[in-house]
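On to our target:
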Amino acid sequence: MTSESSDAFTLTADQQNAVDADDRAVVVLASAGSGKTETVARRVLRLVEESEEGHRILALTYTNKAAEELRERFRLRAGSLAHLVTTETIHGFAHALVQQHGTKIGLPVDPELLTRDEDRVELLTRWLASEGLPPSDDALAFLRDVDLARARLRPSEKVADWRNALASLPGLDYPGLLDAAHDLLELQSVQRQMTRTYSQIIVDEAQNLTPAQYRLLDQVLGAGVDGPAAMLVGDDKQSIVSFAGADPRLLQEFVRERSAKVIRLRENFRSARVLSALSERVASELDQRRQPVPPHAAAGLLQTRELPDETAEGTHIARWIADLLENGLPAATLAQGEAGTVRDHEIAVLGRSASALRAVSDALDAQSIAYTAASGSGDWLQGTVGQLVLEVIALRAAPDQVSTRWRLGRLLGTPEESLTTVADVRTAIVRHPDQTISSVAELFDAKDVSELIESLGRIAVPQSADVSDQAAWESDAAELESAWADFVTVTDADSRTWSNFRRFCSQRQRGAALKGVQLLTIHKAQGREFKAVGIVGMNDGQMPDFRARTPEDLESELRTFYVAITRARRALVLTRALRRRTRYGMRATSPSPFLRYVSESS
């Protein structure tokens, strides 16, 4: 087996066991690079070929990006049977359930979904004022506390207030989708439909399950033998999102509660020999179980570097990237016959925090190397005009939803109170002094989404416009056209509504592909792999984080380090600055204690 994406490799005995298992409950503990995605794909192919008429397989994963990749792999494997597999994030599954049955628990036909923090802050502020309550000192922190409490199923006064605020719209946010889906699955009619529809459920990245998500899964599975069978696939060594409520102990709880069969995938087919040795060293520290694995065909490259300061650290990483792009990887690091060429999107630079990546972004800018720094979902479309078009689509989908008018007001610089109707919005756009924005008004004449997409070419950017504005609109128009083309391939003609395309775009926002060299926090890199990876900020206090004091916190930080080092297939460079700027000025640093694993595995 040469890689996790290979189409023709022979499965190991453990992988084949996972594919063939007929137990009603299975847990696959899959170490990084152990071929879990291919194993899951082969299992799904077996299940769809054996499925009874009318039964489907539900595949759930953690991110939209992962769901898209699984969906594409299933399509390639299952061909005409791919329609029997529903692939979604857990929140996406809950959203579909709410759209289908929400009226049974008193929700509108198309409940308003608040996907952006600024809209949630707006609602909280307005609701507190309407109740005669004082405004929150930090509304975003209030909502973060609420989100964590809901993920962990811990009721509080803040949670109650926020649920009342949502009910005042009425609307939902992403955690609220899980609450609504839970209420729906309490209804016998909905529960029976789950039993009739799905014969098998597969949950990928199951170490990231929160108690709220686990409760939903437990409801879908049901208590008896009539419900779907289930396989959970995960690696507790890669559980690094406890800050969002994830609890890797839920894997063991599933084993206990459902007498699940446990299958372990330990071999690392992704990473070259020297990188595999490093990951095995860290893995053995985390679970005290170490099993010899066959050596990888490629030797790989593992380096550490100390630089005078963070500017020099960023420059070193940028030069290393430039050399990779020009010259590729040294032949000595590769398997026989393997190409050493490295493309920009095959390179990632990881930091424990976004601030650790600033010097790298500056150095890449200086060398004119294209990169993307992953941040919020709103970065899918770059310019104001593109974002405005997206809100016009949202307005056409649901004219009465107030959060759309809030966003339109922010984009147009117009008070939300003056945008009561669709006609008001069109008038505000027509009268806007920016000629490009005013030309968006033509889109209101489109009778359906297809016609709107065809009309994008009529949005005119004047010659006098800033070059960056013109480039942003060209890029955004291409993204919208691409999204529509992809939407058409996965929906029938009757389902190509404003509302469904709006939802598709929302998913696209959260799973937007990143271009160029990728600057990522380690948490955002989870579930991804790259040919070459640089990890910056390998100082004590940065990795592990200075706030990690307890043994539990330090183990969590070691898991974060494990995730970072296992993203690399062939080359890994770890750097640190001997001096770094703090709020107290320049200070000398100490090396991360995790660097000892590098020396021990070399």
Q: What stands out?
A: The radius of gyration is 25 Å. Confidence is low (pLDDT under 50) at residues 1-7. The first strand starts at residue 25 and ends at 30. The chain is about 45% helix and 15% strand.
